[in-house]
Amino acid sequence: MKNTHANAPRIEYGKNTESIGGMVMANLRRCRILVGISAVLLVFIFFLGCTRLKTSTKSSERPEPVAKRHDKTPAPLYYDFEDVLVPSELKVDKKKSFVYHAPDFSAGVLVLKGRVEVNSLVRFFDNNMAKDNWRLVSSFKSPRTIMFFNKPNRGCIINITEKQFTTEVEIWVAPTMVTGEEGLLK
Prior knowledge:
Layout: H1 15-60, H2 66-72, E1 77-78, E2 85-86, E3 91-92, E4 98-101, E5 106-114, H3 118-131, E6 135-141, E7 144-150, E8 154-162, E9 167-175
Antiparallel strand pairs: 1-2, 3-5, 4-5, 5-9, 6-7, 7-8, 8-9
């Protein structure tokens, strides 16, 4: 029988293999040391960057003076009714509005739309209508909010409805009728 493995390379264990193994081990140690140092440097750089980021955002987050904040928000407006203040975030819907102007009074419906929260609108009208000498008679809150105000010679109904992407506000103003009889049904 012939030796078929005669041409196969031989692995001999001895001095040569130990020196190759020693070189591999030395290279592995060097790689481990380099990886360890690199990891420590990366962690150090990461924390150094985070602390710089925190200090720079703290300095840029200084509160603005109160006067500047108020300058950025537009002031409320009086539209067709000279004694009904409207938030500037609401825009008039001219197609749905109708206002009649006479020498002594204005009456009609003013329809406005905007992206304003219903509760903030209720607070706004509650506060500002009182400043214009309107008296809140009653109000209803449901998916629709209705507020009833009056003055000695006029009445105002504010209807606030939250739509899918906007809030619609209807402001109805009309003169009150003065008669000798009291009550709704006569």
